[in-house]
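Course assignment 3, question 2. Fill in each field.
Student: A.L.
Task: Predict the tertiary structure for the chain below.
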Amino acid sequence: MYKELIASIINNPALVSGFIGVILGFFSSLLTSIYVQRSVNKRERQQLLLSKLEELYLITERMNFQFFSDLIRVQKKWDRVPFTSNYDLEPSPLNLFEMLLNIYFQEYKSTSASALRQFYKSRDDFTKAVNSVYSAGVLDDSEKEKKFIELGLLLNQLRSSLSNIQQEISLLAKKNFY
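Answer field:
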């Protein structure tokens, strides 16, 4: 019985070609759906990374403003004027910056290690100087001027290292997404 059924199917070219067509159609649609899913996932990943790069760039700008805020806080302390910046109440942009680097941009950390080291060194120097000046006792005007000039120089170094990081972020975005 089975032999007769198989023989009748094999001898009927319409059934054989229909069966082959069904198999080819199935594999064709399967391969197409796999390709489309991969391209959609890749595009979504690129859009996510691009948005995170933009966020990283904006965070570097916020860090820049925060450092200026620290400088203004020192000046206002000397002038005996209370000063509270908006950046005192926000989460630290530096923590957000490090979080984004650790989660999304591991390759950036490895390729730009020197720029990051320079930034962290400049930030530590600036923070130490701000804390030492802020916690210092009463200073005369010449000492205040010297300290403020020193803080200005440290702030320029810090802004320069932030600028280098921003340029590398822009290059990374151009290389990977445009």
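Instructor remarks: The first helix runs from residue 2 to 11. DSSP finds six helices and no strands in the chain.
Grade: pending
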